[in-house]
Amino acid sequence: MSGIGTSLRWAAACGTAVLLLVACGGSSNPGGTTFKGTKNIGLSIALTGQSALYGHAISQSMKLAADDINASGGINGYKINADILDDGTQVANAVNNYKSLILQDNVVAMLGTVTSAQCQAASPIAKQNKVIMIAATCNSYQLTTEPDLINPYYISVVPNTFMEGTAAGQLAAKTGAKKIFIVSPKYLFGISETNAFVAELKKVAPSANIINDPKTWYVPFPTNPRWDSTINAIQAAKPDLVYSNIFAADEINFITQALQVDPNFFQKYPMTTLASVDELQSLGSKYPLGMHLYQRAPFFALGNPSMNAFVTRYHNRYSEYPSDWAVMDYDAMMLYAKAASAAGTFDADKVRAQIVGHSFDSLRGYKFTIRAGDQQANVGETVGDTVDSGGKYPFPILGNSTNLQGDDLLMPAAIMQQLQAGQCEKTPGSANTTDFSLCPAWKNS
Amino acid sequence: MDPGKFLLFATGGLADAAYLFIVAAGLSLVFGALRVINMAHGSLYMVAALVSVIVANQLGASIGFLPALLAAVLVAASIGAVIEVTVLKRVYGHEHLVQLLATYAIALIIGGAARLIFGPNYRTTAAPVQGSLSILGYSYSLYAFVTIVAAILIGAAMYGLLFRTRLGRNIRAAVSDPELLNASGVNVTLLYTTVFVIGAGLAGLGGVIVAPSQAVDPTIGDSVLVLAFAISVIGGLGSIIGSAVGALMVGEVISFGLINPTTNSFALAFVFIVMTVVLTVRPWGLFGRPEA
Q: Domain range for residue B174?
């Protein structure tokens, strides 16, 4: 009997200990902070489908940021939980996820999706429910300027398509190319960025010509995996430069197949293209050298103590290097943490007041400010040519890179205001025909 | 359209048709003999593609391709054997919905496992045959022609297997009259496992062949499954020749559908228009047989 009694006492003691651990586990961090409860920050992201690679890095970064925030005591006494749902790179799924995260999980804020088409569909849901939405990947300028999309709770910490197209136009002009061939995905992002590229090119390199017909600039998105027709169209046109903003699997497939057709393809037809650490990592040493890249936040070109510490922690935890998306989404989480802490509440209007017009630290090594009007951060773009990393990384990096200043790329305020006022539409009254180059302020500039 | 451009798009369509035929032939064979619509077929294609890239990169693309091919097909066939023995045997004879759900669940399990094991990153490998050739002013990758030749050889091997061997005779018997075959003393249980393993191996072969031309990740099986179904429906479920003709139609429809910039967004939709027309006019497919 005494044996049974001892066992029962041990069982009771162990049970109590487990219950205590469970009870404490929900409300304190390893440092011992006691939280009032948990608040969700939502993320609908592509963990499958065309942009799964980007979503993977973003979700990892968000979890790391949530852990860092909690290790510092959380926000307003609450533990932060990264509430992540897969949208399969589908617009409809993103919409459903937004509804679910906002209405069922009661998120206090949302991070943006990967594609602009998804953000375009999800933004009205965030607006209707007064939820702060911070975009760190989707970046069409229409998301903050198109009259029917204007959302006071929508914050952008990624260079938008106007800024990127402008950076790409300047980069292309530097090459001195006279004959330029355009390849771009046929949806909001591609069209928006290409328009900005062409407009900037006309300004800074008026003698350069786009040699393919505008009807052939755009390829379906997501694309058929075979790129024969585009590769051969480039060979037939013999451009001095190919400009592209294709990305993820499309960029990898295009480069892989172009190199199969001609190993010297990119020496014969140099390319200015959007890229991220993800495409560089995926192709590794097969990524051609001498490509003129523009990137949003390549860690290797933005070295600073904060970034270096982030890269080390990210690499230690995930055995990968952080992509541009990982860097920007970490910044987005930290922006929200700082603003909500300063507001002392999760109320969207009060948090928004602590965001708009305020400056925030960035892993990118500079402070950025959220401009009133379009809530766009004056974040920069990094440009340079791919070179061998000398064994430091298993992929090429940018040599002679330049970090273009966000203030030099931002859309002029007058154009932004005219866009928002509906003065720049191809068909008056039809907001989805918005184009900045139709604005009176652009025409007069 | 100038002849050079026509040939370019025709060859692009043929290269697409080549790997699609290999994948669709496996799907069609399994349906023909076992009457099972295998939703996990694309997953086997995906696993094989991933395995082949990893092995080829470990060994070096030039010497690593053949070992990678063998390893990947072996892995796909082995997974196929496990699926057939542990799951499909229990759902033969059930209505198609049960089989669909069972194989769809397997597809989700394999997809999740692949993400855990291989990670979501895109992987690439170099083609085993490098170089290009120029025809009528346009450049072609040599590997595209290798793909086309490989598909023709695999098609011929399939034909030989089905029409020149005892196993093939039994498989054809299983397609046309499984009950009679059962009564004739053939080990149908073993035959079914063999057919499913061959189908899985073909899915794997398709994955290996396409891997050097595409970014490979755990999601690449999704789109190929849809196209393989379309091909099988167009050609006729259970017909290898139907798969070849269906693949050719699908490959060319996509390739030529991409020519016109105003219609290129709908290139894939054209495939399903063709499928719908075939289903309306000849529901059993161009080379299939109506079920008794």
A: 3-281
